[in-house]
Design brief:
Length: 486
């Protein structure tokens, strides 16, 4: 029997914030250095040091926001080391023990965001920084007074304030950010955020460092003690196919491990719902957002690469995890205001891999490309009826949305080996046809430097108009985006 999707255009729900499609770039491995930033003197084509090929690729998927400088790095980062001349060299103790020369700092990050046309999300240092240091970073970035701190910004070539809005107060402060207890962090949060001031018309959107996974206690303590002082709280949850000691290869896995990966990714539904329930108890009006600012597949590093650099390949399995996760976030758009997949280039579940002056777009990149119509669109109720694939995961996962009169359905067939016939019907429009694009490939399929276009988006063909709705067959392991006509 065909699977069914019934969407309802008469009852649009929350707006799917474009920030749900956000990204994260840490001083880790080759994410910043070599991946995004090569320096002005590089032979690799660049504008003010930023790789032109990578910037153009990210602009194509309309990157809305970029989180920086970490991650664990954020709580060892001292922003004054990364401005002006004669920058301090430091050991990046979290990631490979390499020397960080601070050549990519505040001005370079803001220049990168300018070129990308995206918003900046800066994560400040609580673990090893001071309240004064964080407070002065905000002043340096956003004030237009002629204070000594702002005069330094002018001297470094930027007269206008940067007006950074998204401000994180520490990262994983339960772990690498200081091994704090929830109660201690909550007090630290209250103190640090007090000194992060608004300048001019720019109002900071303050983000408290939240729990990992299903640490309900951390969320409870934060909501109890800080809810009136924060705009959002962060959540970190990775999909680790095996376990933290042996996460499993990014490219070699069997059918069982594929299904395990999907079940683990789908656990995001339970974790987001659980935190939402706690947040609803303290904040029924949903004023405080939930920001999943680190998520994605975490595999073993590619053989022969630096274990501290977290460089992994990316297959259609990762693409399916991306689609499944983005659908969960979209369904929770009433509370989830941003997410940042980890990490943009060359680290974990990245969009882009680079080798010297070469660049490869990953299957995950193409999923983000297919989902762009959902950015800032109204979420439409969408009932999906399809067989159970494994655990609570069904064969199909979907999101429907509407913006400017355009109705978009993204639907994925998560089965690694079975095609799925789907009938799509809609309340509120008589469907007369659709056009679409599709990403599909064998579950291990990936793009390499030898075969860069092995997995790419293709036109979607074979959509029939029937009395029961639109009918099409989704190949195994596929993500489709349809613009519905009616
Ligand atoms: O994304 C890699 C690391 O994972 C981050 O630095 C840290 O916040 C998390 O544990």
């Amino acid at each position: 029997m065909a699977a069914k999707i019934l969407l309802d255009t008469l009852n649009p729900g929350a707006t799917i914030s474009r920030h749900i499609y956000g990204h994260f770039a840490e001083h880790l491995g080759r994410c910043i250095y070599g991946g995004l930033f090569v320096g002005k003197d590089s032979n690799i084509p660049n504008v003010n040091g930023m790789r032109t090929d990578v910037v153009e690729a990210l602009k194509k998927i309309k990157i809305p926001v970029l989180r920086w400088p970490g991650g664990c790095f954020a709580d060892e980062y001292h922003w004054e080391d990364g401005i002006g001349e004669n920058r301090k060299r430091m050991v990046n103790t979290n990631w490979g023990g390499v020397v960080e020369d601070n050549s990519f700092g505040t001005h370079e990050f803001m220049e990168l965001c300018r070129q990308l046309g995206c918003e900046a999300y800066i994560c400040g240092n609580v673990g090893s920084g001071t309240v004064r240091e964080m407070s002065e970073w905000v002043e340096y970035l956003n004030s237009d007074s002629d204070s000594t701190t702002v005069q330094r910004r002018w001297a470094n070539g930027h007269k206008e304030p940067f007006n950074v809005k998204f401000w994180g107060v520490g990262n994983e402060n339960w772990g690498c950010g200081g091994n704090m207890r929830a109660e201690f962090y909550a007090d630290q949060y209250r103190r640090f955020q007090t000194m992060c001031r608004n300048y001019g018309d720019n109002k900071l959107y303050k983000i408290a460092g939240g729990p990992s996974d299903d640490d309900w206690h951390w969320m409870e303590v934060l909501m109890q003690n800080c809810k009136t002082m924060m705009d959002a709280v962060s959540l970190h949850k990775y999909t680790v196919p095996k376990d933290w000691t042996d996460k499993g290869s990014a490219t070699e896995f069997d059918g069982d491990l594929y299904l395990t990966t999907l079940r683990k990714a789908y656990d995001m539904e339970r974790v987001v719902s659980g935190h939402e329930t706690i947040m609803d108890r303290y904040d029924p009006e949903r004023k405080v957002g939930l920001i999943v600012d680190e998520w994605g597949c975490w595999h073993n590093v590619e053989p022969g690469t630096n274990p501290g650099f977290l460089y992994q390949q990316n297959t259609m399995r990762d693409a399916m995890v991306a689609a499944l996760s983005l659908d969960i976030f979209n369904r929770h758009a009433g509370r989830v205001t941003m997410t940042n997949i980890a990490q943009t280039v060359n680290v974990l579940q990245s969009m882009v891999l680079t080798e010297g002056d070469e660049m490869v777009l990953t299957p995950t990149y193409h999923v983000y490309d297919l989902y762009t119509p959902h950015m800032d669109a109204a979420l439409l109720p969408c009932a999906v009826q399809s067989p159970v694939l494994t655990g609570d995961v069904h064969q199909l996962t979907a999101t429907a949305s509407q913006k400017d009169g355009v109705t978009t359905l993204t639907v994925s067939n998560l089965s690694a080996d079975e095609a799925c016939e789907v009938v799509i019907d809609a309340v509120g429009i008589d469907l007369t046809g659709a056009e679409g694009r599709i990403l599909t490939g064998e579950v291990h399929a990936m793009n390499t430097f030898e075969n860069k276009e092995n997995v790419t988006i293709q036109p979607l063909t074979g959509i029939e108009v029937t009395a029961k709705g639109l009918k099409l067959t989704l190949p195994a392991c596929s993500v489709a985006a349809l613009t519905l006509h009616g």
